Amino acid sequence: MEIWKTNIGWLSCLLLVLCQQTTKGATHWVVTEDGKIHTQDDSVFTLRRPYDLVSLLEQEKRAEALKRIKTQLMAQKETIEASAGADSEAAHGTIVIDSETDVEQVVYSTNDDCTNAGKTLPEFDLYVGTMLFLPPVTPALVSKKFNDFNDSDDERLISDERLRTEDFEQPNCSQFYNLDFSMHSYEHLQSMRDRKNLEIEPESDIHLTITSVEDIDSYGNGVYQALKQNNTSWVLYTMASYYWRAKGNGYEAVECLRRALHCAPYNYKHIPLASLGNVLHRAHHTEEAAIVMHHAIDVSSENPISHFTLGNIYAVLADYNKSLICYENVLKLDKSFTEAKLRYHAVLCHQKVEKALRAQHEYTLEELQGYQKQQELWLHYQQKLLSEQAPPGVLLEQRLQYREHKIREIIDSNLNNGGHNMASGGGNVGATMKKMNHGTVNGSGGGSGNHNAEINHGSKTGSSPSPTCSAANGGNNGGNGESDCHMVPILIPITFVPPS
User: Of 217, 207, 218, which Cα lies nearest the Cα of 159?
Assistant: First the structure.
């Protein structure tokens, strides 16, 4: 019976080893909601530093926080979806605006400022060009009153005869006056330092404000001829800037205005400053254009054109309160300034539209902002959780080590059981061998010869061991025929290599 027990033990060991190839080991388990225990191969507690107790405790806190934030996010999502179809009351009047109603159309059709403006604020040209040279317009390129701005009253700026030449020249201001740097030309502004990159749209009709000459090339040639005779006239340099604004050349316009600002007396600097503010504004350097226009107003605050230009600039910058102040200043100086009045109402209308939109979506916006913050917090904890978790390669190595450890435990357990059985059988074998030795020493030679003959006979004939044991015992015990021997189990060690 002992040999069968031993063989069954080894067979069980072999079956368990084979079964390990189709099963997987796990070091972490989780209890499901229905009370069942399942393995968790991708557990967040499989750390890259499993020996670090502090990391394990912190990982547990992060896992709990992650679970809590996820629950909050789900609740917030349901709340946002539920409130998406709710009605909200507009901040103006008592108009109730449904979520699917066009808020802008409701305000535009009911608000007085929107009606007075006639169109929305984006429909106004907020980049419209302005200039400070105003009518009356004379047949000459420049009226006589501008002669007062020059150092010499005897010098005539431009005559009609100069306009009749066939070869048109352009007033390139750099060739008349070399000016590398000037404290008066706002060199500290970034747009002025990068003036070669300025791009503006052409203002084709700007020169018609100060002249009856319709052809822009004739206008430019007249300014050129005048600069040849007087290259320090700030008036001519300012007029040359209008020519380049009409052509859409921002760099040449700024070069002319730098020389105009350098040569102009302080009391008249607001004229080239207004032109410079227009160039920078149309080149989309609007913030720096606001600086220049504020300086123009500081020089002369009684000119409505400067306030009007600054109002357009602040409207582009979406600083609507300052824009309203500028338009109000225009209307104080000139109540008949229609464009300023229309834009004033348009800005008020635009403010009320924005206020109505905020009132409609204020609650939803706050909820979305809170949801976004919670989502960012969730991502932070998730990244930290994954950073402390063991990478896939380490996880696979840990699983293989665990499986190898369990297999070795099973093999060692079966080896120990087999050794115990062998020791039990070994005592009987020892007694038998003792009897056999006793018979060999003390028995007759014939008995010993019979014993050896029986063993040899059993080996040659292939008979079972039982008769051999009986013959051997019979030789020793006087042929009583009783069997007193045990089979000796032969243990063959098996080395198992776990699959990779």
Answer: 218
Superfamily of domain 133-302 in CATH is: Tetratricopeptide repeat domain (1.25.40.10)
Region of 479 on the Ramachandran plot (φ > 0 left; ψ -120 to 50 alpha; else beta):
left
pLDDT tens, position by position, 403-437: 788 888 888 888 887 655 555 555 554 444 444 44
For 435-464, b/e burial (b = at least 16 CB within 10 A) is: bbeebeeebeeebbebbeebbeebeeeeee
Assign 500 to helix, strand or coil. coil
Calpha distance 476→17 (Å, rounded)? 46
Q: Closest Cα partner for 163 from 204, 215, 207, 209? A: 215
Q: What DSSP string describes 425-465?
A: HHHHHHHHHHHHHHHHHHS-HHHHHHHHHHHHHHHHHT--H
Q: Nearest-CA neighbor of 240 among 227, 185, 228, 229?
A: 227
Whole-number Å distance between alpha carbons of 19 and 23: 7
Which pLDDT score, from 0 to 100, does residue 364 have?
65
Q: Which of 97, 91, 132 is nearest to 238 (CA)?
A: 132
Q: 186 burial class (0-12, 13-18, 19+ CB within 10 angstroms)? A: buried
Residue 488 pLDDT more than 50? no
The highest-confidence range among 205-219, 296-310, 375-389, by mean pLDDT, is: 296-310
Only one residue has tokens 């912190």, namely 58
Number of other CB atoms surrounding residue 154 within 10 Å: 6
Calpha distance 278→131 (Å, rounded) = 8
Q: Mapping DSSP to helix (H, G, I), strand (E, B) and coil, where does residue 29 land? A: strand
State the pLDDT at residue 133. Answer: 67
What are the residues whose beta carbons fall under 8 Å from the beta carbon of 313, sequence distance 6 or more? 277, 281, 286, 289, 290, 293
pLDDT at 429: 44
| Rounded CA Rg of the chain | 52
Task: Give the per-residue pLDDT at 299.
Answer: 95
List the single range of 118-132, 279-293, 365-379, 414-428 with lowest mean pLDDT: 414-428
- Confidence band for 277, pLDDT divided at 50, 70 and 90: very high
Do the beta carbons of residue 243 and residue 220 sit within 8 Å?
yes
CATH 1.25.40.10 residue spans of the chain: 133-302
For the cut 50, the answer to whether the pLDDT of residue 31 exceeds it is yes
